[in-house]
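Thanks for the sequence, V.! I ran Probable cytosol aminopeptidase right away. Repeating your input here for the record:
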Amino acid sequence: MTITLSTQSPTTGDLIIPFRQTDALADQLISLAPQLGLPANVLQRDFTAGAKEVLVSYGPNGQKTSLLGLGTDPKQMDWLRTFRKFFFDQKSKLPAQLSIDLTAVDGTVVEGVVLGVRGGGYDLKLYQTDKADAPFFFSEAGALTLYVQETELATAQEALIRGEAIAQTQLQMLDLMNAPANYKNPQTLADWTVASGKQYNYTVTILDKAELERQKLGALLSVSQGSAVPPVLIIAEYKPEGIDNPRTVGLVGKGVTFDTGGISIKSSANMHLMKSDMGGAAAVLGTVEVAAKLKLPIHVIGIVPSTENSTDGRSTKPGDVITAYSGKTIEIIDTDAEGRVILADGLGYMVRNFQPEVLIDLATLTGSVIAALGYHAAGLFTSNDSLAAQLTESANQTGEQIWRLPVWDAYLEDIKSDVADVKNYSGKPLAGSISAAKFLEFFSEKHPAWAHLDIAGMAFADTEFGSQKNATGFGIRLLIDYLQRLIVEKR
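Predicted structure:
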């Protein structure tokens, strides 16, 4: 399906018109009523433009017009979710050609619309043998025209390019996250990144198990010991051409492709959802690809330590002491707190080999952050107020919400070990996400602009795609918006 922009007024074919609840709504509906063949009072009675409200009408010429409500003050996420739900619900009924009238709004909304439309075509039935062909609208024959004002065309074009770049990458990340462990392992992530790097001209380096052993990434290796599948460290580096001294951002993402908990094994309830424990990796790899697609004038390095956390006689055991890449020792209290352990090597490798100006790690790390924030926000941990403010601005813009939690040094007591430099788990049923963040901060080596995003409640969630939790692609839009803010700030 192709998406194009036009400044001509739509005259024929099925049409979608979004509306906001504003003082102008009544006049807008009065002017639209003759086109729909409806009395104005009936239209005003039956459509109030409430969030996700839909009214479908057939005009005198047979044209189908769908009115979509967006509520009073829709943000980008509202546009995205409204259009995603509509296109997902209506996908089997959509014609090959369709138009959306955006002439009453500014061109920036195009990004959310495009993300919603593309997302609405997602199909979770990845492995069903009787899976139907893609709906005609979402096939190569489909065509969507977005009508905008002439004065908004340039803005809309930028938003379209950005929306398309993010959407296509995000859909691939959904497939990777939703794939079960027998279809996905660390090498799968490595292969995807290598292919992406070749396509979009950025550098990819894969450290295999032998190289990990040679360079002594002991934390990552320790988590992988119980799995027959070898670990990898994925390094994806996008460096813009022709830019002198660009700002450098390092992103580190947890890439556990399946998590049993190891010796500290999880209960069987919902363990099947642990195929999703690579949400941080998806955000990091997706962000690097989108940055390369858009040719952003900023240097982005993504590092993903990737492994399974499985159980056998070789598994790391509670009480073991391991040595991380940084040379620091870790006492393993709980093998199910493995994400922070592999991130210790990811952070250490990033700091010592790339020295980024900004360092951000993302991980589906703790159930504790879900207990604190539910499924509406990721946890943000940083001692850098400026970085916190910038990330929060990006969260507010994209609707990928975050909430700052403390990283006071009082919590260092929770990771003190009697026998090693630190321990990986406090053993206490409280402040779990904070003590995990303090552990990661230790391995950031006092980086002045470090932030940790615990996305456990956001990377896998309830959506219209299925009856159980599935991937969201959380973090890519947030990080791309943040990178673009840094670029503007640099100028």
